[in-house]
Design brief:
Structural class of chain B: alpha+beta
Mean pLDDT of chain B: 95
Oligomer: heterodimer
Largest interface: A-B, 21 and 21 residues
Structural class of chain A: alpha+beta
Number of strands of chain A: 8
CATH superfamily of chain A: Gcn5-related N-acetyltransferase (GNAT)
Strand content of chain B: 25-35%
Shape of chain A: globular
Distance between the termini of chain B: 26 Å
Radius of gyration of chain B: 16 Å
Shape of chain B: globular
Order of helices and strands of chain B: EEHHHHEEEHEHEEH
Strand content of chain A: 25-35%
Distance between the termini of chain A: 23 Å
Strand order of the largest sheet of chain A: 1-2-3-4-5-6-8-7
Number of helices of chain B: 7
CATH architecture of chain A: 3-Layer(aba) Sandwich
Strand order of the largest sheet of chain B: 1-2-3-4-5-6-8-7
Helix content of chain B: 25-40%
Number of domains of chain A: 1
Chain lengths: 185, 185
Amino acid sequence: MTDPDEIILESERLLITPPREKDAADLARISSHPLIKKNIFTCPKNENEAKIMISTMMMWWDIDFSHVFVFRLKDTGRLVGTAGVNEINRRHMKAILAYWCDVDHWGKGYTSEAVTRLIDYCFDDLELNRVEASCFTSNPASARVMENAGMSLEYISRHHYRKDGDFHDAWHYAILRSDREPCKS
Amino acid sequence: MDIILETPRLILKRLKPGDESALVDAINHPDIAATTLEIPHPYTLENAADWIRYVNSPDTMKESVSLTGFHKDSNEIICAVSLDKINTRHLRAEIGYWCRVSQWNHGFMTEAADRMIDYGFDELNLERIYGICFQNNSASARVMEKLGMTFEGTARSEYIKNGTPIDFHHYAILRSDLSENDRSR
């Protein structure tokens, strides 16, 4: 097992690291936005809940269930989002990505950049063969992140999610190791 | 809790200790192993004992209903059908099944699975029941079509079997797909 303390992923504009307790206030603030709460399931309501969430994430890291990261801007150090590799399945060599980004920083391609870097992490470091992600069909911005990162739409599952009593259809995307350009593999 | 369901030709019930050799007699066939992820061939009495322990464990029963179809006349095991990964938050579950090879093409699988789908909607209050099959398993796909399930798409290399990644077709049926007329079939 790699010690998460030693993992720093880098992309053109981002530093991507495991979350630390000091990130709790930022996570709580960012995820309190209605546009975030609308589209994801586990939002910390305050800094204390965010701290608990971070310690849960680190426990999941220890048992190799998921590797969750936060990403921040290189030039300002500002935390702008999270992206995680969840439900790591070594037997079937696959995992599920999830991500969200500070609404104030939407439209700049940061999430696509972070997700693209995490896909490489999945193939090169975790040695997976398949990476999946899904979103509500009412959330085309999230689908665009997956497309920007090279993922393909595979199936649409109707009424896949229930949130606040309503059912939502889901787009399911995936990328295989063999989908990446030859120069990367 | 004991669950016993009835169809015109079958009694569906949970296997009990003592059913090991009857299970081996029905399931031990290379064509069943070839079309499923978890069923080995040869299938030994020890495999059967492990399975029966598994389906009767409280943890399994929390998220699974796994029943076996006994022929009403011969009392022979004909098939098995289960609802697994029962998700009470999103109100969905995955249907899975196998049928004794000598009884293929007699409609037993559709008969048993159809009853299980009704059980899922009526007793478990599910919204969505989904199923997957190996992309080359047209017999299983035909069962899902006969059950009124809709093809949702194909996930590439979704599971690995004996070192080979396999594509899976995804099907699903929603509570609202069944009209009141259908429900009283």
